[in-house]
Amino acid sequence: MQTMLLPVSVESWQIECCWEPFRIGEHVHWRLMFVEQGRFEPEPEQQVELTAHAVPFSWEDGEQDRAGIRLSTAAAVLYWSPPEPITGAVTVVGSVWEDHHAGVPEDFPVTAAVIRRLRVETREYTEDPPHSGDWVRFGSTASYRDVSMSPKRFAGPAADIGPARAETGVLADLEITA
Questions:
Q1: pLDDT one-digit tens code per residue, 82-127
Q2: pTM beyond 0.70, yes or no
Q3: Which run of H or E residues covers position 104?
Q4: What angle (nearest 5°) sits at the alpha carbon of residue 51, between those of residues 48 and 57?
Q5: DSSP letters of 105-124?
Q6: Which H or E element spans position 21?
């Protein structure tokens, strides 16, 4: 039996839209998406290195000019959309996301896991231009706060102008056993 602990990011808007809060110890079945380093720079807490087997996974609604790949590890299965087709054994570095709003095919297999740790992610934003209502990321690192259950609603920027903090999602450490 093989067990892995995998940090998985869940964006706040996905939870607010369609989920009930989830908690530590809960058994979940999530569709997981892998995003390679360089396409998106993960926080150190999000970054993973996976050794997996890659096979094509056809999805007509997938990203244009990118391949659809099923990454299988001993314990998890992840959807990946690399710039070119890849087949066989691979070692990849990046981050893992749960996505149930068109980032992963609906017929893609789920990964069964138990939530072992939950952290709310907070980032700094600034309104650019001031008083426009357009908030952009300010600064490069996130901070994390341990919680026993994910929020249903997340705190947005509290300031009218200048840097403000907003909760952007949850980082869930999933224990996955094969």
A1: 999 999 999 999 999 998 777 888 899 999 999 999 999 998 887 7
A2: yes
A3: none
A4: 100
A5: -TTSPPEEEEEEEEEEEEEE
A6: none
Amino acid at 148: S
Amino acid at 31: R
- Contacts (Cβ under 8 Å, ≥6 apart) of 58: 68
∠42-43-44 over CA atoms, to 5°? 110
SS3 14: helix
Q: Both tokens of residue 65?
A: 């000019």
**24 is written with which tokens?**
């530590």
Token digits of residue 158 = 């509290």
Cβ neighbourhood burial of 129 (10 Å; 0-12, 13-18, 19+):
exposed
Bridge pairing between strands 111-127 and 164-177? antiparallel
Q: What's the one-letter identity of residue 88?
A: G
